[in-house]
From TrEMBL, chain A:
<feature type="domain" description="GST N-terminal">
    <location>
        <begin position="9"/>
        <end position="90"/>
    </location>
</feature>
<dbReference type="InterPro" id="IPR004045">
    <property type="entry name" value="Glutathione_S-Trfase_N"/>
</dbReference>
<protein>
    <submittedName>
        <fullName>Glutathione S-transferase N-terminal domain-containing protein</fullName>
    </submittedName>
</protein>
<dbReference type="InterPro" id="IPR036249">
    <property type="entry name" value="Thioredoxin-like_sf"/>
</dbReference>
<dbReference type="Pfam" id="PF13417">
    <property type="entry name" value="GST_N_3"/>
</dbReference>
UniProtKB/TrEMBL annotation, chain B:
<feature type="region of interest" description="Disordered">
    <location>
        <begin position="1"/>
        <end position="25"/>
    </location>
</feature>
<dbReference type="Pfam" id="PF00578">
    <property type="entry name" value="AhpC-TSA"/>
</dbReference>
<feature type="compositionally biased region" description="Acidic residues">
    <location>
        <begin position="1"/>
        <end position="10"/>
    </location>
</feature>
<protein>
    <submittedName>
        <fullName>Redoxin domain-containing protein</fullName>
    </submittedName>
</protein>
<dbReference type="InterPro" id="IPR050455">
    <property type="entry name" value="Tpx_Peroxidase_subfamily"/>
</dbReference>
<keyword id="KW-0676">Redox-active center</keyword>
<dbReference type="InterPro" id="IPR000866">
    <property type="entry name" value="AhpC/TSA"/>
</dbReference>
<dbReference type="InterPro" id="IPR036249">
    <property type="entry name" value="Thioredoxin-like_sf"/>
</dbReference>
<feature type="domain" description="Alkyl hydroperoxide reductase subunit C/ Thiol specific antioxidant">
    <location>
        <begin position="17"/>
        <end position="146"/>
    </location>
</feature>
Amino acid sequence: MRKGSTADAPITFYRLQGCPYCERVSRLLQAYDLEYRSRFVEPFHSKRNVVKRVAGVRTVPVVVDENTGVTMAESGNIVAYLEAEYGSGTDATSTSSGNNGNGGDD
Amino acid sequence: MPDFDVVDLEPADHPEPGETAPDFTRPLVGEEYWEDRSLASLAENGRFVLVFTPMNGSFLARYIWDELVDRKWDTSDATVVGVTISTPYEHKRFVDDHDLPFELFSDPGNGVAEAYGIAHDLDGMAGVSEPRPAVFVVDGDRTVEQAWVASEWPDFPDYDALEAVLGNDLEE
């Protein structure tokens, strides 16, 4: 970890500005009122070594949840995970299209 | 008489030694990503140095950072961070291009400079305001130890005086 960094939010969310797959995850994190910090990366995949290192892929979104020790890529998988872990029945689950980690992320 | 003009700036109303450095939260850009950081959270790691520069493309920004690299301020016990109005993308490029061993706050709205009383409206760039060059050495309680603020345009920090306050053995 770089000098000056603190780990004050349990969920770290790697994202790209304006990426719809990321916005989907963002909406769900907010709907569940989860504390998270956003780390923005650049559009070029070659500039995303941090994401590769953390999650083994260069796509975003990626969520690292220190509450559970889970690191997850693919928006469909992340949505399913968040719903299962933090969802409380019917609220917010309507945004889900299920576990469809189909590689459509940015 | 020199045939160029160094313009005197109006006195700045900036935090003086002994006063509290205003807190703020802005995206802090490093070599791999940027994320919102507060000055208060930086202060938790102890002493730090806030370096305000003109926007990244200017020769002023490059000269100031080159000088701080040459002087090895990255080896200081204090955390050295920059502030400019450049966007996170521009900061990211700047850090990459110069292999800069420092992180930079992005403040396109110039609100941080306003809070520090050092906003500078640029003549000939309508609607563009940025910080005037300024350096604040601040302790872990966010109390200003030393302040250097440009009184002329252009002007460069009094590096030696700041290093005297930092008191670190910066030589290898």
